[in-house]
């Protein structure tokens, strides 16, 4: 079953549907494969840390850090999809992110969910 069967997707060449819900309307879970995750840890760039420190004094969005976090989350999600695909899943249910500080040197982002095989009802 390709992503075209879902009527949408998470980007080009995506054949794994990722949703935050427990199910997908119009589809039935045929097999639960299990937990999958994608993990990445990113250190902060010294320049962005200095800029963020200055910006925090006057307020406003920390654009450099926002960009880094978006890239980090996308990488974690990509790794989750790759793991789900390699285990034979065509969907990930109950998708979530967990973000923590990693030993004061960076940010750890973990994307996780339940890999399943779904079929249209």
UniProtKB/TrEMBL annotation:
This is UPF0145 protein SLUN_22355. InterPro entries: UPF0145_dom_sf, UPF0145_YbjQ-like. It holds the Pfam family YbjQ_1. Belongs to the UPF0145 family. It comes from the Bacteria. PANTHER family: UPF0145 PROTEIN SCO3412, UPF0145 PROTEIN YBJQ.
